[in-house]
């Protein structure tokens, strides 16, 4: 049976001056997960926030906190993100020298373990850790910024990753340029967890966020 579709708003596109309210708003508007984009200005050319901010906004929602660590190294910060309230921690394959060890640590902390792949990284980079994974994140833009255009070549990669996952209980997440125009193709290629920033946070109100989330869900099944 196909996995339930999950919609995870990326708070990168929210109004950071009201971050707690913006998280609560997408929660009430129908988000399944809250996606937290952590950037270090080194692995990616942008800087966002770290564990203290995650801990501060944890009370804004009881939904699954899905942290996407675009940081290198990631290992020294895993415990702090888990303590801050992240329930899923996704690291980049490109940023982890000992990926197998990193994933073991994430699970030992009681979190779901994920690996993200940049557009240029082959899925073969995660063949050896499939049994340590709860989620694979196929980046469909080059990480660092919201509002970029979806890279069409990633559709075939999503299909290849879906085939690799086989019958394992692993979520296939996509992130970057996810919109009502692209989500249907991504779902047909095998994605089941959709991160969207600008397509959800446009409109600036809870009512708009609800409409935007509903439009994404409708386009998956169209
Ligand atoms: O991780 C990232 C960017 O690095 C994403 O989560 C973006 O924030 C997605 O933004 P949109 O492409 O949906 O606007």
UniProtKB/TrEMBL annotation:
Pathway: Carbohydrate degradation. Coiled coil: none annotated. The keyword Zinc applies. A divalent metal cation binds at residues 35, 37, 68, 175. GO terms for biological process: pentose catabolic process; pentose-phosphate shunt. Its cofactor is Zn(2+); Co(2+); Fe(2+); a divalent metal cation. NCBIfam families: PRK05581.1-4, rpe. This is Ribulose-phosphate 3-epimerase. It comes from Aureimonas pseudogalii. The gene is rpe.
């Amino acid at each position: 049976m196909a996995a339930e579709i999950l919609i995870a708003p990326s708070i990168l596109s929210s109004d950071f001056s009201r971050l707690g309210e913006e998280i609560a708003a997408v929660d009430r508007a129908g988000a399944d997960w809250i996606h937290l984009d952590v950037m270090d200005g080194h692995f990616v050319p942008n800087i966002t926030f770290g564990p203290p901010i995650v801990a501060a906004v944890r009370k804004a929602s009881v939904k699954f906190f899905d942290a996407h660590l675009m940081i290198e190294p990631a290992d020294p910060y895993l415990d702090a993100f888990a303590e801050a309230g992240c329930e899923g921690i996704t690291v980049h394959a490109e940023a982890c020298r000992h990926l197998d060890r990193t994933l073991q640590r994430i699970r030992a902390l009681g979190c779901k373990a994920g690996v993200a792949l940049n557009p240029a990284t082959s899925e073969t980079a995660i063949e050896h850790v499939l049994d340590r994974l709860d989620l694979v994140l196929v980046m469909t833009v080059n990480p660092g910024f919201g509002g970029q255009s979806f890279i069409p070549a990633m559709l075939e990669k999503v299909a290849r990753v879906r085939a690799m996952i086989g019958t394992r209980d692993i979520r296939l997440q996509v992130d970057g340029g996810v919109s009502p125009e692209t989500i249907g193709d991504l779902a047909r290629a095998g994605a089941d967890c959709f991160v969207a920033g600008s397509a959800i946070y446009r409109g600036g109100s809870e009512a708009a966020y609800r409409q935007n989330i509903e439009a994404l869900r409708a386009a998956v099944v169209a």
